[in-house]
Amino acid sequence: MQHYFLNQSIKVGQLISIPTEVKKHWIKVMRASDGTKAEFVDDHERVFIGELVQSSTTASIKVLCEKAFNAELPFSVTIVCGVSKNDKADWIVRKATEMGVDRVIFFASEWSIAKWPLNRVQKKLSRLNTIALSAAEQSHRNRVPLVDYQPKLESIIAADYSQKIVAYEESAKAGEESMLHHCINQMHLGDSLVAVFGPEGGIAPSEIALLESYGFKKAGLGPRILRTETAPLYLLAAISAFSELS
Amino acid sequence: MQHYFLNQSIKVGQLISIPTEVKKHWIKVMRASDGTKAEFVDDHERVFIGELVQSSTTASIKVLCEKAFNAELPFSVTIVCGVSKNDKADWIVRKATEMGVDRVIFFASEWSIAKWPLNRVQKKLSRLNTIALSAAEQSHRNRVPLVDYQPKLESIIAADYSQKIVAYEESAKAGEESMLHHCINQMHLGDSLVAVFGPEGGIAPSEIALLESYGFKKAGLGPRILRTETAPLYLLAAISAFSELS
């Protein structure tokens, strides 16, 4: 069944005019016809089942029932990633959305080879937020993650989070293997976790020092060296495993 | 430091003639010069530090010391994936290698839209095994995973494994969330786990029945719908988290 986000309140029994983007995908691409059902998420992350009702001039959703369903992680996870090369940002956003991320923030890290010129940031973010929407639909999330960019790491990490970690290859090499589990064990429903990841070249010692001064803990993600785009996925899957599977 | 697999025994103090492929990458691409150090893995998964020794006519590795290092998961994980579209096989092999997989077997599943024509299987496998080698070097593994293809699911699943699971979306939808953790908890050092994943269209009921007749357990991988190429990575990260991080 298709799954769409409507940025509005939804009530059972309501007849809703279909937003243009949803209409384009559901009717034109997926060839929905009269009576085809889909899931629709309201602006409070609630999921409803609706069916297509068409007349000669209009296409509407008839809301049939609410579906009690929560696909969100028990706590909010923000990943903060150094800008990386090629289409890795697309990939990180798509896969992290599937894995349950709440927010993705890219930053211009000291060792980033790639740069985001200021005059192209808005266009890049618009594209990445569209990818997040599409991935959230496909993975049947209750929420669309927000993708953002901040040139300065300090302005991101000064925000308030319950747990703060930095994925640090040197810690992993030194055998650090308990910090992530420890942090997750201390979290409760509705808490927030932020995790910082370097770009291809890694995270600079001065950035590590800055993060530590803000209370970030260095965490290893297992003994294998993970690429910059793989590490956030490992983290999200580990968080899901510890909090949703055990 | 670069990391290369030499398919031979290695002893400290030995002078080894550099294999062509290693020479091409280490000297031509990475521009190693006299005295540059790298890691070399022998045919028993042991890691050594060696340095480049060049004369006007030869290039050799002088083996300096052994590095006690194990980047392998505590047990062997085989993933069995329905053939999927586009370059997803490349992607699965690359990322699963980073995440510690031991063996990847593709099979012609009932609902696979993509097919591997028999006359192209060898070429595809050769390419995928090269990807596995390259990813194993980059993630500093002790072992290069083996990539294989079997047209029939039954010939794969009849083999002996300590734990056998099938990632089943319907189980996840029904709220199954304990099986994976349960299976991993029962495993000991050196045991083996096999996990089967369907292609884009999912796994057919007849395949589920066959798997169950061979003792496979249906496991959910969290409440979000994962794409066919994401699910094996979730599994591997969860196995690492449960066995290497806690």
UniProtKB/TrEMBL annotation, chains A, B:
Location of this chain's protein in the cell: Cytoplasm
Major location (coarse): cytoplasm
Protein name: Ribosomal RNA small subunit methyltransferase E
Keyword tags: Cytoplasm, Methyltransferase, rRNA processing, S-adenosyl-L-methionine, Transferase
E.C. numbers: 2.1.1.193
Family statement drawn from the similarity comment of this UniProt entry: Belongs to the RNA methyltransferase RsmE family.
Upper taxonomic lineage: Bacteria, Bacillati, Bacillota, Bacilli, Lactobacillales
GO molecular function: rRNA (uridine-N3-)-methyltransferase activity
PANTHER family assigned to the protein according to its UniProt record, in alphabetical order: 16S RRNA (URACIL(1498)-N(3))-METHYLTRANSFERASE, RIBOSOMAL RNA SMALL SUBUNIT METHYLTRANSFERASE E
